[in-house]
Each structure stands twice: as C-alpha cells, then as structure tokens.
Amino acid sequence: MLRVSKLTDYGTLVMSHMAGSPDRLFSVTELAGTLRLNTPTVSKVLKALGRHNLVTSVRGTRGGYALARPAGTISVAEIVDALEEQPFGLTECSALSGTCDLESGCRIRANWQRINTAVRGVLNGISLADMMQPAPVAVRPSSIATRVAPRVIADKLKTQ
Amino acid sequence: MLRVSKLTDYGTLVMSHMAGSPDRLFSVTELAGTLRLNTPTVSKVLKALGRHNLVTSVRGTRGGYALARPAGTISVAEIVDALEEQPFGLTECSALSGTCDLESGCRIRANWQRINTAVRGVLNGISLADMMQPAPVAVRPSSIATRVAPRVIADKLKTQ
DNA sequence: CAATATAGGACCGTTTTAGTCTTATTTGCG
DNA sequence: CGCAAATAAGACTAAAACGGTCCTATATTG
C-alpha cells in the first residue's frame, strides 16, 4: 500500500500541535478536543511516542504530555518508526521462497533495500518544525532521482 | 505500514526475469517454475501488469507474456502503481474529521503531500534495468543516515 | 483519601492482503 | 472441426493488519 498508517498521521498532528507550546503539558483530553480526535486514539498514539522517547509524560492530576526535544530535532522518520509496528522496509524480502534462478532475486532485493534507504533519507530529512511551516517544506522530489537514471525520468515526465 | 505489497515484489521479480529475454514469450507456468512462485499468483500479477500495459500477452497454445517496453524505460513507480490497489499517497489526509485548530492540520497535510512526491520521485527514478544490475543501483548514498540535521537539508533542497 | 492523569495491554470489528479457484475466451494444430 | 494450451476476468476464502475501544494498574496532586 505504500502508505503511512493513520496512527502516524495522528502522531504528526498531535506532536506538531504540542510543538506550539513547548513548555507546558497537554492532557490527552485537551489534545483530543482541540484536534477533533477520539480520546483513546490520542492516548494510544502518545503512549507509543512515549515508549520511543519522543514525548515525555507526567502522571497525576496536573500531568500530561510534552515533546521530549525541540521540534527542529525530531524527524518525521522517527515518528514513523515509533508508530508503524513493523520495522521500516519497503519489502520484507524479494526472494522469499528459497533461491530463485541466478540469484537475480537477491539482486532485486539488494536494490529494493537501496531504494529503501533513499526513501528513508527523505523522511529523515524533514523535521517536525518543517512540517509546521505554513509554506510547504522544500523537498525536491527529483533531487535523488535525477542522478540515478536521467533517461527514465525524462521519459516519465514527458508522458505524465 | 510504509511497505510495498508482496504482489509488487513479485512483479519486479517477474518483470526483471522477463527482461532477460525481451524477444520471447514466457508462460505463467514457466515463470512460476523458475522463480519458485505459485502459478496462480504469478498469473494474478501478470494480469494486473497487463491491464496497465506494462506487459503484453499472447493467448493460445504458444502464448505467454513479454515486457511491453524495454526494461530501461519502465520505472519501479509504474510497477508499484500497477500492483498497489490504492492510489499512490503516503496519507489519505491528515485532517480527516473536519477542521482542526488553526488549519495546522492542513499544513501538515500539505507537507505530507510534498514528502509524498519526493518518495515517488525516488521510485520514479529507478528503472527495471537498474534493478537488474548486480551492483546496487546508485540511489544516492544515505548521507542523511543520522538523526537531526533536518533544517540543513530542508534549506539546502530547493522548492519544486 | 479522592480525583485526575498516564501506562500497559487485552480485545474486537473491519479492512486489506494473499492466495486459490472457477469459468470464459483465444490461439495453434492435427 | 475439434481438442489442447494458454491467458482474461473475477469470485471467493483465509489470514493478517489496522483502527479503535475498554479495562485495570499506577502515579501525582491537593
């Protein structure tokens, strides 16, 4: 599906909202209210983020959550890692059932892993602070692609 | 889960194998045999690829499948598009339930879409021929391996 | 002690995915 | 013509993932 889960989506929303007031605590109910999300869901997201030390929590009557670090030092990749259950990876393995002919499967697999790190690089390069900017963060789409296979890209851009 | 489906994985395997002999036809049973995949599954994959005109098919006794175009002109993004059901997109929408406070949700959403195109750019820049190379295709070494530094990267990359 | 909050985890319904199967259609060949 | 081989299309099933809820425990404040 090549899609980030809703939990990750909520995570970026919640964290970016908290980033607006880095010095105070937000309770789950407050966050759910202002962001129009369900309370248990927000709770689940924050618990997961807390386990990965992206947010800190304070229990008790006046407790709540806050970002563990400044928004500029938290990457989207970290949020994805915290909220997506399975470890990051575009494929589990291209050659699942034993060896296929000529190890070509393993070649494919190695290349998938390369693509993988490239995608991860994109996610790693965007911080929570970037996500909050009203103007879209500058992520040049073809910066990575261009130096790989220029001919393909040229063809694609013409036909799409 | 930010992962490509198994069908897509199979698709790259099957297509890269067919790319080895661009001038002949491969039957489903042959492909399944050499790649150690199940026949119906291979059939399913090829049917989907055929609907998207990535492979051509010939029915009948000596029929089979072949790549519709040279491997160098087929991008991984096209295979993903053909085999992933849902349209490409990392999030469906970051602000699902109406408007959240201050439109921050929509800001997040816009930025997810930017990230989206960047990821797609990566996939778009890799051709099937690249995937077949024994040496991993050059997808820009992950100089971004470590955390943080997002600000620097975001600034360095120019807007689309 | 009581109220308020998070922590952890179990639980369930829905959706998606992977895979199989059935039926129809096309083509080659004796 | 008629049979065999092959794809086309889609229905169907089992399993896994996802989204969401709920329950119980624990910590903090006053």
Overview features:
homodimer; 160 residues; mainly alpha; Arc Repressor Mutant, subunit A; 8 helices; disordered C terminus
Structure description:
2 copies of one chain form a homodimer. Chain A is mostly helical and 160 residues long. Chain A has a domain at 6-85: Arc Repressor Mutant, subunit A (Orthogonal Bundle), CATH 1.10.10.10. Chain A is 52% helix and 5% strand. Chain A has 8 helices and 2 strands; from the N terminus they run αααββααααα. In chain A, strands 1-2 form a two-stranded antiparallel ribbon. In chain A, β1 and β2 (64-67) form a beta hairpin. In chain A, α1 (6-19) packs across α4 (76-83) and α2 (28-35) packs across α3 (39-51). The longest helix of chain A is centred in the C-terminal third of the chain and has 21 residues, at 104-124. Residues 94-102 and 140-160 of chain A have low confidence and may be disordered. Chain A binds a DNA duplex (30 and 30 nucleotides) through residues 1, 5-7, 27-29, 38, 40-41, 43-44, 46-47, 50-51, 57-65, 85-86.
The CATH superfamily of the domain at 6-85 in chain A turns out to be: Winged helix-like DNA-binding domain superfamily/Winged helix DNA-binding domain
Percent in strands of chain A: 5-15%
CATH architectural name of the domain at 6-85 in chain A: Orthogonal Bundle
CATH C-level category of the domain at 6-85 in chain A:
Mainly Alpha
Taken from the alpha-carbon principal axes, the silhouette of chain A is elongated
Pick out the low-confidence regions of chain A: 94-102, 140-160
SSE series of chain A: HHHEEHHHHH
Radius of gyration of chain A: 20 Å
* Distance between the first and last residues' Cα of chain A: 21 Å
User: In which order are the strands of the major sheet of chain A placed?
Assistant: 1-2
